[in-house]
Design a protein that fits this description.
Elements (H helix, E strand, L loop, with lengths): L1 H13 L3 H12 L8 H17 L7 E2 L6 E2 L4 H8 L2 E2 L2 E2 H23 L4 H12 L4 H14 L5
Helix pairs in contact: 1-2, 3-4, 5-6, 5-7
């Protein structure tokens, strides 16, 4: 259940729907399966409303001329926008990769520190893992990863 809480926190901090879908996938594929949490269902309800609006004739153009006209098929961008995966130049998939990299860096750093690795050695190991030669940037990545997971330290 720690994984679900991490995904909830990551979604709350980043508003990235990738974390909702990751949580749902985990609930359905973990053994034993677990119920999809309410915060995921709330998000799915919002997405369902946006997708449903794509099929309304008020929101899109029409196919045909008579009373039996049908809405046009939404564009891929309209569908991705309705799902929350793109918005104002933001790409949830690209952002999720960057966000997960930060979370993993923070996790590595915290695990080494918890195991007794001195701060400087843990930082250097994470810098090497990140391929980040700049200590200030590596610290920022670790701090951001902690923030995404809701860590106060």
């Amino acid at each position: 259940m720690v994984h679900l809480e991490n995904m909830r926190t990551a979604f709350a901090v980043t508003a990235n729907p990738f974390f909702v879908w990751q949580a749902i996938h985990w609930c359905r594929n973990e053994r034993p399966q677990t119920d999809v949490p309410e915060w995921c269902l709330e998000h799915l309800g919002q997405v369902a409303s946006r997708i449903n609006s794509l099929g309304h004739v008020d929101a899109v153009g029409l196919i045909g001329k008579g009373r039996g006209r049908a809405p046009e098929t939404p564009t891929p961008a309209e569908m991705l926008r309705a799902l929350g995966f793109i918005s104002q130049g933001r790409n949830a998939f690209r952002n999720a990769g960057s966000q997960m990299r930060k979370v993993r860096a923070a996790g590595r750093f915290e695990a080494m520190r918890s195991a007794g690795t001195p701060y400087k050695a843990a930082l250097e190991e994470v810098m090497d893992w990140l391929g980040e030669p700049n200590e200030t940037r590596a610290k920022t990545i670790i701090r951001t990863g902690k923030r995404i997971l809701g860590s106060k330290t």
